[in-house]
Design a protein that fits this description.
Layout: H1 6-13, H2 34-50, E1 58-62, H3 70-75, E2 79-84, E3 95-96, E4 112-118, H4 127-136, E5 138-149, H5 166-175, E6 178-186, H6 189-199, H7 212-230, E7 247-254
Parallel strand pairs: 1-2, 1-4, 2-3, 4-5
Antiparallel strand pairs: 5-7, 6-7
Helix pairs in contact: 6-7
């Protein structure tokens, strides 16, 4: 049985062109926990780690999509370049390509003082190649900010490969010659429980109508618990403790 050519294989596993996020706000109810959490965390790290590099700096946004952080980094003084597999509807992706392929000619030899790669690496199959490229795109002293989901449902199939741990990010970053400045888990038990409950649909097994007397109270309990999790006051009364978390944020430096 013959094997697929490299081009066909690459197309088979490439992320499909989908509607792109231009702001880090939830589009669906299930995103109400993870999306604002990521948005706040990314902006906080940009202020902490990117500001010292802003004067005359260049920022590359890998997997930029709708470029939700472009206004933020441009206000900080960066010259912004978007890099993605697909062009966005606005036509503002400056360079097309995949981070785990050989770099496009437009990026060969280029170096940036800051690189963003948020919610991208779970869709990248070849991590050693991707991290080598990310490292090569950083100028000495430059920094890489990346995020990856840890507890999240499959999406952008079939190019959904990983839910990496902090140790995986640390290993691949160090292997590529990068020094971790921070690797942090995002999301507490409240965020985890809300995300899981919202992703579960409770229905009668096999569509049998006589199971509804059991389904209805279960649905009520689920809705009531989701209401409690969405409110702020329970935080003062109840601690939802778990070793699970929603996402990981990491910052690396090239020295």
């Amino acid at each position: 049985m013959g094997s697929l050519s490299d081009d066909v294989a690459a197309d088979r596993w490439r992320s499909p062109a989908l509607p792109q996020r231009t702001r880090y706000s939830p589009k669906r109810q299930i995103e109400r926990w993870i999306v604002p959490l990521l948005g706040r965390a990314i902006e906080e790290r940009l202020r902490e780690y990117a500001t010292p590099l802003a004067a005359g700096g260049r920022c590359l946004d890998v997997g930029c999509g709708g470029q939700p952080f472009r206004p933020h980094v441009e206000r900080m003084g960066f010259t912004y370049t978007g890099f993605d597999v697909h062009q966005n509807p606005e036509g503002t992706v400056g360079v097309l390509g995949a981070i785990d392929d050989p770099l496009p000619a437009a990026l060969v030899g280029q170096q940036f003082s800051f690189v963003l790669c948020t919610e991208v690496l779970e869709h990248v199959a070849r991590w050693p190649e991707a991290f080598r490229n990310l490292a090569s795109l950083l100028a000495p002293g430059g920094r890489l900010l990346l995020t990856t989901p840890h507890l999240w449902f499959p999406h952008e199939e079939p190019s959904d490969f990983f839910r990496p741990t902090p140790w995986a990010l640390d290993f691949h970053g160090r292997t590529a010659g990068l020094t971790p400045l921070e690797i942090t888990r995002l999301g507490d038990g409240r965020d985890v429980l809300g995300t899981v409950l919202k992703s579960v649909r409770i229905r009668p097994a096999g569509g049998r109508w006589f199971y509804w007397p059991l389904v209805i109270p279960l649905r009520f309990i689920r809705s009531a618990l989701l209401g409690v999790l969405r409110a702020q006051w329970p935080r003062k009364l109840v601690s939802f403790e778990t070793s699970l978390y929603l996402s990981t944020i990491a910052v690396f430096e090239k020295r």
